[in-house]
Amino acid sequence: MIKNLLQNYIKDYKITLTENQYEQFQKYFELLAEWNEKMNLTAITDESGVALKHFADSLSLLNFVDIPQNSSLADVGTGAGFPGVVLKIARPDIKLTLIDSLNKRLVFLGEVCAQLGIEAELIHSRAEDGARDEKLRENFDFAVSRAVARMNVLSEYCLPYVKVGGAFCAMKGAQANEEFKESLNAINTLGGKLEKKYFFELPENGGERAIAVVRKVKNTPQKYPRQLGKIKAKAL
Fold it and tell me: Is 146 marked as binding a ligand?
């Protein structure tokens, strides 16, 4: 059962889940396993792996980042819903937007939200295109992303979504500190300031993780984000 595994993994976390929330995580796992047979959502498919490396990993953000009640949060390049859907289960007050370039993933996430009884806005868009949409640009208290791209590239994808005063939270794996250092120019150019860096290990020797919190201190210049080809050809 996901509940027993997750209870153990998050026993030292700063959150408490209800019975209903554990049931939502169980259903989420079942849907992930079912849909993963017909489309590639995750390479991790066993209960303990999903509970630790997707659910507990996503929830770790709440140990380090204070997300005020009713904050708006964009999960950029959400994939199978990590960390966005996980955060929404734990914090139903969050106003969640899930952004992904692959429509079939959003079809899956729509089914997840329907069956779990949670609300989220689903946006089918490449990250750099969505950030130029005036309805999305600088419209969120938080943007989050988990292991999508290197930090300097990820900052160009994500910071344009964040309103001034809000924050972009990048969830990364081992050796992230070098990425954080090389991204300082990009962060500054895009209107951000690297505020905090956290380094920790997942429970049960689940691996090294890092979280960078980038505060949005001024508006992102209108020319950013650039087209994908330019981002790839010359990262900030």
Answer: yes
